Amino acid sequence: MSVKPIREHTGKSLLHRWLGEYSGGKHTYANPGVLITTDVLDRTTGQTWEMIVDENPWLKQEKLVAKPDQLIKRRGKAGLIAINKTYDEAKAWVMERMCKEQQVEPVTGQLTHFLIEPMVAHKQEEEFYVCLHSLRYYDEVLFYHEGGVDVGDVDAKAERMQLPTGSDISADVVAQKLLSKVPTEKKASLASFIVSLYKFYRDLHFAYLEINPLVMLADNTVVPLDMAAKLDETASFVCAQKWGEVDWPPPFGRAAYPEEALIREMDGR
Length: 269
Description:
By secondary structure, this protein is an alpha+beta fold. The chain has helices spanning about 10-20, 50-55, 85-95, 155, 170-180, 185-205, 235-245, 260-265, and strands spanning about 5, 35, 65-70, 80-85, 100-105, 105-110, 115-120, 125-135, 140-145, 160-165, 205-215, 220-225, 225-230. The strands form 3 sheets. Strands 1, 8, 9, 10, 11, 12 and 13 form a 7-stranded antiparallel sheet that branches. α5 (about 170-180) packs across α6 (about 185-205). The two termini are about 15 Å apart.
């Protein structure tokens, strides 16, 4: 296994594409947002703000969230999330930071990729935490009923469920083992979503998938607000069609090495 982190936009785009199929149409994820790169600085590259808006008219119809998409942890506490912005405000926020040096804790790097997505108005009690990760002989699902930026030490307080590699998962077992502190009216839909999420995780060869917060609205619609994910890159020979084109970003603060591209090519054979 060669585990590689992916951009938040990549993970959300995969969920947008496949969640309906893995949930039998019960759950969907409507809008994974749009990735803004340094191409917007050069009108000859093919990605301009005008083209972005033409392809994503919702940018001018909804309030927005903007944030860097470069494997940066704790972006909110670093002041790197803009919330409740109009299109013009989000564009200005991104352009003010594009290609600028940014220090995040001890690491300094250049901001080059940003995710803009619709803002989802919600209440604090609608935020949950869910994480799936793979170990040698089993997968583990962690769930906590109070998600969000101040979730704290989930390793110490989350409910856990271990699944032998390749096994199936049922909504009844999820509800029993993970959702004891979730309001009754939300349990069935949330359990169904977690089952679908695990099928998606397993079949697309994820090695890690954390959503915090995972928001469940009053109508039981489930929306992943913030996602961190890793794929098993060696599975590209079986998952390439489902994955599509995947961007493998280097850690924040470091440029990609040419050798990494060669290793990825060899791993995928």
